[in-house]
């Protein structure tokens, strides 16, 4: 169902008409001042008539302006008062028409008028789309000022891709699945990350807004910068680095080394690490070489902070604790020491507000934040997850790359350390060609098993490409042989949600039972009507050891490698620079007055591998530990693992 209904069209046209009509009254220089009909009839001149200015509202000859003013029947003060009153009426009509339009459209989006009318207080139109102050809305929910839903979250992840530059079709699957659920009468919405222009849109992947009939209504807008959110995050971190450079120039002992990288949405591999300022100090004779590096926006620390923060206050606090460099004694220098954090918040501006857009079939889609799954978190912001969860019954959320990347970060990092809502189940997407790969076929079963072990029942989804329709029976038979649930199968690019809607009985049955169970637990705990925030509870540490946030960093790292990558501690290899970098990271964090073992772990690796050699026999696979870097504001340790390159797209990255 399209949001821009006939009601929406009428309200928008009424809004524009009333605004134009009142504006005509306000800007009319002689409105109500007794001009004769003869005077008005002389003003319809053309631009070629000397001494006149054409005006389609109430034009008048310039040369007669003074004489008309003298012949005014009301004093100038009264005229000014009338204009002020008209302007006031314009503002009132403008606000009311805008409010009526928002109420109508938001009711179409969220289904409940009461919620829509409250949500309108936090919403701004952006062309055909909207931006919502998620922080304000979540605070109002917490303070019981507004009411919302307690939606179920379905995590969409995928098999580990055969190549980093090719996706399995997760975004397409998310949109198709959302369209299919709505076709079955379910109040469903999708949550996506924002694409990065540097790789996703401009690179070989070709975009991250779905494909074919299972895509966003405004693909180009979303792929090519949306409303400047990525650019603002880039600018904000670069501003911190620029201020750090200034401190380094003026107080080199206070800031001897800059550690924070610059950020670029369109980087070159040559900028990854450079030396600048090749000058010789005339007084000391020393060179002024200054090392710098550049990372892509989806890999930046500030992007992680945007993802993890659920209030502006939390975000400001995290930005203040970003480590920008070290003093001459090796002590950490924080962002709050080099820049006014409020300036950074101002630069970020409305990039902190999620965008609400829609699929080509009219389903609501929320877009916010865009970290990659291999070099960062791979998740949309926690704020947009909770926002959508409070507005819809079922929310389909994509995690980047395979289950060993974005989904792993959700399980081992986002929920235990930052309170991300826990999904009720998962959908694991694969292309038929990936699924049929003989040497790497084990990875799909392993990823499915990982989801099941942490309490996320996994529903396979096989995304067909052109020419693969005749493989459906064979694919379903193979799934049965492998002990998997019956897969959802379809050419989602061509057929979209129409292909999936008839196949959703198993998923809908599970969601219904899970909701009933959660409501029963809520009633048992004294919750009104069984309404339990989050609807699904995260498992305890007995089931998922990484939920125990009090264990040491290395204990948690080995657990992640064993559970998410399938390699025991006995086959973990430490490269010679691993231990020194780990010790340096600990020293840096502790010099900032922070507890190193309270930091979450974010494994960094190529998205197309799980281990050092995925083609080796299971008992011979290894994982190599390489180096550790610190994102203190996000309280994350970036731990580089496996022998592969972080990405296999050097020409782009």
Commentary on this structure:
With 653 residues, this protein is of the alpha/beta class. The protein folds into four domains: 117 residues; 233 residues, Rossmann fold (3-Layer(aba) Sandwich); 120 residues, Domain 2, N(10)-formyltetrahydrofolate synthetase, CATH 3.30.1510; 94 residues, Formyltetrahydrofolate synthetase, domain 3 (Roll), CATH 3.10.410.10. Helices cover 39% and strands 15% of the residues. It is built from 22 helices and 22 strands. It has a ten-stranded mixed sheet, with helices on both faces. A four-stranded mixed sheet has the order 19-21-22-20. It has a three-stranded antiparallel sheet with strand order 7-11-12. The longest helix has 35 residues. It starts with 5 loop residues before the first helix and ends in a 12-residue tail after the last strand.
Give helix % range.
Answer: 25-40%
Q: What fraction strand?
A: 15-25%
How many helices? Answer: 22
Classification by helices and strands: alpha/beta
CATH superfamily of the largest domain: P-loop containing nucleotide triphosphate hydrolases
Radius of gyration: 29 Å
Low-confidence stretches: 1-7, 19-70, 529-534, 648-653
Query: Termini, distance in Å?
Result: 40 Å
- The number of strands is 22
Q: What's the shape?
A: globular
The total domain count is 4
Please, what is the average pLDDT? 83
Largest sheet: 10 strands, mixed
CATH architecture of the largest domain: 3-Layer(aba) Sandwich
* Widest β-sheet, arrangement of strands: 1-2-13-14-4-15-3-16-17-18
- The CATH first-level class of the largest domain comes to Alpha Beta
Q: What do we call the CATH topology of the largest domain?
A: Rossmann fold
